[in-house]
Design a protein that fits this description.
There is one protein chain. This protein is of the alpha+beta class. It has four helices and seven strands, in the order E-H-H-E-E-E-H-E-H-E-E. Strand 3 and strand 4 (about 70-80) form a beta hairpin. The two termini are about 25 Å apart.
Length: about 140
């Protein structure tokens, strides 16, 4: 699924307010935390043609024993007015592609119960509230 009217880019400090608003819908987060994640280039945003942030995700990359690389998705949020239009699925596919580009063998996230159906629908593996995608060629 493609969204030609949207662009996925690294968040800028000018996006702090919009990203904070989206991430606060998941869990309380303050401006300084969002600024730090953006400064560290750990937030990607999906913007419409008018440069309005419609979705965002925050991630971390880590390696175990210097060999196995993983991507942890700490936040994933879609503007409530845009939900149900496939944007979340589009983001998950972008996350999967990004994880492959960096050589990660998997990405994973922890989810609230209300998003469980969404992650299962998108064929992520599940145990309790932890969801993951595993690279089949790893």
């Amino acid at each position: 699924m493609k969204f030609p009217k949207f662009r996925l880019k690294s968040a800028k400090l000018s996006d702090v307010r919009s990203v904070k608003r989206l991430f606060s819908r998941i869990r309380r987060i303050n401006r300084a935390q969002v600024e730090q994640m953006i400064s560290e280039k750990k937030v990607l945003v999906l913007k419409d043609r008018k440069s309005k942030v419609r979705a965002a995700f925050a991630f971390s990359i880590f390696t175990i024993t210097g060999y196995f690389t993983f991507m942890y998705i700490s936040k994933l949020a879609v503007d409530p007015n845009m939900q149900g239009q496939g944007i979340g699925t589009f983001l998950l596919n972008q996350i999967r592609q990004k994880s492959l580009r960096i050589g990660a063998i998997a990405f994973f996230l922890y989810s609230a119960d209300r998003a469980r159906k969404f992650y299962l629908k998108n064929k992520l593996n599940n145990f309790w509230r932890i969801f993951w995608w595993k690279n089949d060629i790893a």
